[in-house]
Amino acid sequence: MKGEIYSLISELRALVEAQMEAVREDRIELLFDLQERRSKVVEKIQKIDITAEKSALFDGSEEESSREEEENSPSFKEMILEIIEMDREIKERIRSEMNGILGRLNRLEQMKKGFCQRGSGERQGRNLCLNA
Is 131 domain-assigned? Predict the structure, then answer.
């Protein structure tokens, strides 16, 4: 069971890394596809009953694995912390992009209002006012 959880967390970390790359490359459709795949992995993790093994997962006692495996692979805690950090970066990049889009929309709305005010004295058929 521990190996299955480790495998799923590794898969989750790989999906988050792919999401980071998708955000950097502005590949929104890929980002959504990866999020769906990520949700499925999270569901699998949640279905596994780890109540009995919970303390062993995070206290560093990995009796089933060899010393060599422990030294060459990150711990559960390290991987989860990496995932959290990458999530923060993804969130900030998306927030920054959304703020940029909102700023452009606000400027467009101001331009539209400016055109409406200028055209208000003209005949209605030639008015440039558009309703949003």
Answer: no
Task: Classify residue 53: in a domain, yes or no.
Answer: yes
Distance CA 22, CA 106 (A): 27
Residues 6+ apart with CB under 8 A from 129: 112, 115, 116, 119, 120
Cα–Cα distance for residue pair 44/42, rounded to 1 Å: 5
Number of domains in the chain: 1
Q: What is the mean pLDDT of the chain?
A: 79
Q: What is the pLDDT of residues 73-131, one digit of tens each?
A: 778 889 999 999 999 999 999 999 899 999 999 999 988 888 877 655 544 555 555 55
What is the reported pLDDT for 52?
A: 46
Please check whether residue 27 lies inside any domain of the structure: yes
Query: What separation in angstroms does the CA of 7 have from each of 12, 77, 92?
Result: 9, 14, 28
